Amino acid sequence: MKSVCMALFVVLFVSCSSDDLVSSKDYTAENEQEILSYISAYNLDAVATGSGLYYVIDEQGDGAAITSTSDVTVKYVGRYTDGTIFDSSEDEAISFYLQYVIEGWQEGLPYFNEGGVGQLIIPSHLAYGSSDYNSIPGGSVLVFDIEIIDYAAENEAEILNYIAENDLDAQSTDSGLYYVIDEQGTGAQPTETSYVTVNYKGYYSDGEVFEENSDGSSFYLDNVIEGWQEGLPYFNEGGSGTLLIPSDLAYGRYGSGTIPGGAVLIFDIELVAVN
After folding, report:
1. 178 by DSSP, 3-state: which?
2. pTM of the predicted model, to two decimals?
3. Strands (E), 104-255
4. In the chain, is it the N or the C terminus that has fewer CB atoms within a 10 Å radius of its CB?
């Protein structure tokens, strides 16, 4: 992931170029002709915008709408119109704030929803301009095949599949959290700000354990991930069960430590004490 992220910074992220320092050639007409020839050669159903950007929607996506300032996760391949690939996320999903990348992405991605698939065909004035930028020649038209990840949908499908495979009697909440009560418990019921002591094992849906504590871990509930804040109050002291937590109630699209971005987290928990 580290090498891919570095490539993303090199290729996608906006930086000052020599266009800011010297007069630059206007590639607008040349780029437009190159783009139209590319669209014709590949018989693409492309839509033009007033800026010179063209985009192709293969799948609109059913997830959240995207704005020019959204936090997004994308798989992509970047190439020139002759087919030469200059960068790729190599099937890994890369997360970033859209306002920090080239204008063609800021304008183009909001035509899709999360889960969308398609192509952006970007003239140089919406990319890196008329001067060379690292390995990208000045005036280059850039073509990106993109897949925008919808973690909400992917996490929901993963959780439902896990529940079905393990024949769990799970309850769902409006937030996307699922929980299983094995023992309700008879003691005090925590609130989202309680100080609690918990035994737990945390693992992914494939069974890989990433953390566990059987000696009693104590903490204020409002200092931990949202999935715990919401889930533990369904139990009373002495209760036990399982929390199945989507990534937006855990560590989000960026992850934390060894936990990857977008990960569903499952916790077997025993609520030892509510203080």
Report:
1. strand
2. 0.88
3. 117-122, 142-148, 171-172, 178-183, 195-203, 209-220, 240-245
4. C
